[in-house]
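A.,

Following up on our hallway conversation. Structure tokens first:
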């Protein structure tokens, strides 16, 4: 039996959804049964640390947010590089097919320390007719975080949205940091330096936080309880 510790995220729930049969297909191919434990973000970090500190813990596979924690866990000795994993992957595909941005979340100096499961992305859902009324067109497939902030403010000052609460965000305490990150990362910022000293007390970081907080003016009541799932 392979025990997996996973975090509650819409992308992760796809693994356990029997309509897609992902875990079932893996079990059939590998010959091993799999126990897939999904915990909320608020509970996940403590469970992860417990199993990392206890090398004989109950989980064989864990999920780690590489863009946040990889270097920290390497420094603490919790992880080892995956020697030879590139050549193993290249026997049935191509490691280089993994997007460079994602490889940056799982590698250090070109060496993989993890394998990708899913990456942290943000999708914007909106009513087409309302956006067209405000902007005169639909949104492009990809927008920047600052464009998103400008769009929300445009809606909030337009007759369509003026005086209304129309925005939903992931602002639960377990999610709000991740929801702010796109604004922070957009300027090429980093959370820690190479010695793991926090370096987000900068004018750019403060502006990113101020922009994020300003969106609360347009957010639905109770937004501080909204999570990812």
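Then the amino acids I'd put at each of the 229 positions:
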């Amino acid at each position: 039996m392979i025990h997996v510790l996973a975090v509650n995220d819409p992308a992760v729930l796809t693994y356990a959804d029997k309509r897609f049969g992902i875990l079932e297909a893996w079990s059939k191919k590998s010959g091993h049964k799999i126990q897939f434990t999904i915990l909320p973000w608020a509970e996940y970090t403590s469970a992860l640390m417990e199993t990392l500190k206890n090398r004989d813990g109950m989980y064989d596979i864990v999920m780690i947010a590489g863009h946040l924690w990889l270097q920290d866990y390497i420094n603490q000795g919790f992880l080892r590089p995956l020697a030879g994993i590139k050549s193993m992957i290249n026997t049935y595909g191509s490691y280089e097919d993994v997007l460079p941005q994602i490889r940056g979340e799982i590698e250090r100096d070109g060496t993989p320390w993890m394998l990708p499961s899913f990456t942290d992305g943000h999708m914007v859902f909106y009513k087409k007719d309302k956006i067209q009324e405000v902007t005169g067109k639909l949104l492009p497939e990809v927008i920047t975080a600052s464009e998103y902030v400008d769009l929300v403010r445009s809606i909030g000052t337009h007759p369509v949205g003026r005086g209304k609460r129309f925005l939903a965000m992931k602002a639960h305490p377990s999610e709000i940091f991740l929801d702010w990150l796109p604004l922070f990362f957009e300027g090429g910022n980093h959370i820690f330096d190479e010695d793991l000293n926090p370096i987000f007390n900068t004018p750019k970081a403060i502006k990113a936080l101020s922009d994020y907080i300003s969106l609360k003016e347009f957010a639905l009541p109770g937004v501080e309880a909204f999570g990812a799932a």
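The beta strands are 2-7, 34-39, 61-62, 107-108, 111-112. Curious whether your intuition agrees with the design.

B.
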